[in-house]
Amino acid sequence: MTIEKFSYDNKIVRNFAIATMIWGMVAMLVGLLAALQLPFPGLNFDAHTTFGRVRPIHTNAIIFAFVGNGMFMGIYYSLQRLLKARMFSDALSKIHFWGWQLIIVGAAVTLFFGFTSGKEYAELEWPIDIAIAIVWVIFGINMFGTIIRRRERHLYVAIWFYIATVVTVAVLHIVNSVELPVTFLKSYPVYAGVQDALVQWWYGHNAVAFFLTTPYLGLMYYFLPKAVNRPVYSYRLSIIHFWALIFLYIWAGPHHLLYTALPNWAQSLGVVFSIMLIAPSWGGMINGLLTLRGAWDRVRDNVELKFFVVAVTAYGMATFEGPMLSLKSVNAIAHYTDWIVAHVHIGGMGWNGFLTFGILYWLIPRIYNTPLYSKKLAGFHFWIGTLGILFYTIPMYFAGFTQHFMLKEFTEDGVLRYPNFLETVVQIVPMYKLRALGGSLYLIGVFTMVYNMVKTARSGKLIPNENAEAPALEKIVVAEHAGHWHRWIERRPVQMLLVSLIVILIGGMVELIPTFLVKSNVPTISSVHPYTPLELQGRDIYVREGCYVCHSQMIRPFRFETERYGEYSKPGEFVYDHPFQWGSKRTGPDLQREGGKYPNSWHYNHMEDPRTMSPGSIMPAYPHMIENDLDTSDTGAKIRAMQKLGVPYDEHFDKVANAQLMQQANTISDDLAKNGIKVNSRKEIIAIIAYLQRLGTDIKGEKLTQAK
Amino acid sequence: MYKEVLSEIKGISIYPVISFIIFFAFFTIITIWVIKSGKNDFEEVSKIPLTDELK
Q1: Who contacts A422 (Cβ-Cβ below 8 Å, separation ≥6)?
Q2: Which candidate in B48, B50, B51 is best for mutational testing of the A interface (most A CBs within 10 A)?
Q3: Is residue A546 located within the same domain as residue A603?
Q4: Which of A21, A381, A421, A462 could make an SS bond with A589 (beta carbons 3.0 to 4.6 A apart)?
Q5: Alpha-carbon gap: A153 to the closest alpha carbon of chain B (Å)
Q6: CB contact (8 A) between residue B53 and residue A239
Q7: What's the CA dihedral at A551, A552, A553, A554 to 10 degrees?
Q8: 3-class SS at A83?
Q9: Are A635 and A543 within one domain?
């Protein structure tokens, strides 16, 4: 047996660690701004910093910049050591690192300027989508190259989680981002309405699963045993945990669409698999916590263990809450309210955040070969961070319940007690302030950590290449023992990849194929027509401004919703919606039946300053829509794109689209003039009014014809 | 007019049933195998994270 000498690449780990900390601070600062904008709408400074744009920047930055870099940091560290091999290619590592940072910068800039596809957590436009796919594949090649050159025969359970992550994120990203480019930074998804919603939440749910959960579980299975210096409690449990988790997660997406226009069978499928998910999730949590059996005394003076314990506990809480939230009766309360915001922050701040911090505290002193600068500051970070999570989530739970029960309350006479949505918002504004306080505490902790890390790094010196040695892997000549078929997979990464891929594809296909067949099966409602060119342009402004961040377009079949908003939503109403705009959170009221509710002049004034029409409103003002000219140069291209996607505009309609657009715009500006508002018909405000007045009116026409 | 979308696809209810059967079979096989194989089978593997440093 020959002993080979080699070295681990610590520099790439350090780079990802720095990126994690910098983007973490940026992402959380942006989050704090978003949190403060709700109680203090004056903080929506200008067109670029309205809540509708800030919130997607926050979510994307947390997921892809903070957690993404944190994941890569942990994977690059643990993968090399678990395989006893240096990363396959230093060049690929570098391309991965810089490529990913460029994508983040590109994402922040485009979102800031309103370039968005309007699909939550997949908002980035098509050139960035392509860049993500390329960089992700480079990461995959680098990982598999390392696995193939390994000096350890068995693939430890953490690596299975990494493999599943690489494979599944690639599939999810590609399927959900199939879009038709219209201009350089504008595209339409090929799916529409119900289909788009199902694909989007299949993606959205599994982004949580395979970007925020599986890689971090892999990290847990490596760093937790390292920190306590004993093997994981039950390796057998980890095998069941892995397979059950990746198998179940992929089916559960429809639980994000309960009580919507999504077909019932898909909703039920999502519910059943979500409930079952509790088993593997808790298996993993228990496995993590029991790894500490007999070593709990170490938690007292070991700061990274403290972070790990809270992280794993938060994982347990969030994965108990998740299945509960997918019960239809519970979901009826939580969906669209701040309960969901609380739920995701238990996961984001507790599980991802604290696990990342724990890893940083463990790893930075090691690669700099020096003790941590200050244990006291780390302890302070732990306590203020934990307090921050509590101050963030408890007010949000409270706000969610309060608002739901207010919205639902009827008087003895059978009318809504709070018919104005705004009354319920005003009630929970104090909770929004408390939440911002919680976020600030958490952020103070992060700043403390970064200071501590900088000090630690300064007092030591980075070991860019850590020397190691291990025997070379010898070819196995003897055949495997029968009955060890799982070992057959464990030792063979390519098989592992294929099996994982098959497992997630089965789930994905069962869920998606029926809805791909949907086109011929959606009962088209004869009165639902494609948008006029002006409405289409207005709709794109609606998407650009991120209105879907706070307003849903999906009325559930509940009495308190139909009383408040009107007829519940039908699947056939969305057949021309590329992308769908159902939304997932109501910070403001639903807009599905907004059309015709108020006069044009109301919308004009409301957009200019919401508080003139609705005192106490927390919506940002959009005066720039009144100042900006509508860009009609791309109307023809947009019509042609829609035609390609199957929207039945007449042939050569793109040639006359702008003429028709101006005609409709003039009608609206004339109407506004009658009400004393002088505005040029070429302004953006005209288009957004046209779109808002169209919303949900089609089926009213249907009823009219039937009555006649 | 406003029927649920997919009600017209023939035999659509078979999808949830198939998915449940596939999962249940898979889960059962994995569980049985894990239980059948002894704890000792994995002792070496589970120590991999702890043996990666030479110090």
Answers
A1: A614, A616, A617
A2: B48
A3: yes
A4: A421
A5: 9
A6: no
A7: -160
A8: helix
A9: yes
Residue A568 sits in a domain of what CATH number? Answer: 1.10.760.10
Q: Does the pLDDT at position A381 exceed 50?
A: yes
Of A678, A683, A690, A687, give the one whose Cα is nearest residue A629: A683
Give the nearest partner residue to A269 out of B4, B19, B50, using CB atoms: B19
Q: What's A358's domain CATH number?
A: 1.20.210.10
* Whether the predicted pLDDT of A523 surpasses 70: no
> A202 and A102 in one domain?
yes
Q: Are residue A587 and residue A498 in the same domain, yes or no?
A: no
Residue of A nearest to B24 (CA): A244
CB-based contact A235 B46, cutoff 8 Å = yes
Listed residues A511, A545, A571: the one ending a domain: A511
Per-residue pLDDT tens over the stretch A168-219: 999 889 988 889 999 999 999 998 888 888 889 989 998 889 999 999 999 9
A183 and A272 assigned to the same domain: yes
Q: Does A420 share its domain with A559?
A: no
Q: Is residue A519 part of a domain?
A: no
Which residues of chain B does A510 touch, with a Cβ-Cβ cutoff of 8 Å? 15, 18-19
**CB-CB contact of A658 with A635 (8 Å):** yes
Q: Give me the pLDDT at residue A708, please.
A: 41
Structural domain for A30, as ranges: 7-463+487-511
A240 - beta bridge partners?
none
**Average pLDDT score, chain A:** 91
Q: Is residue A454 part of a domain?
A: yes
Does one domain contain both A99 and A229?
yes
Residues in B touching A705 (Cβ below 8 Å):
none
Positive or negative: CA dihedral A95, A101, A107, A113: negative
A384 in a structural domain: yes
β-strand partners of A4: A470
* Structure tokens, A291: 């790894």
Nearest-Cα residue of chain A relative to residue B11: A514
Same domain, A548 and A500: no
Do A514 and B23 lie within an 8 Å CB cutoff? Answer: no
What is the pLDDT, as a whole number, of residue A269? 81
Name which of A250, A201, A264 is nearest B13 in CA terms. Answer: A264
Q: How many CB pairs under 8 A join A and B?
A: 120
Number of domains in chain A: 2
Distance from CA of A329 to the nearest CA of B (A): 20
Indicate the residue of B6, B23, B48 with minimum beta-carbon distance to A154: B48
Q: Chain B: give the shortest CA distance to residue A285, in Å.
A: 17
**Chain Cα centroid distance, residue A681:** 37
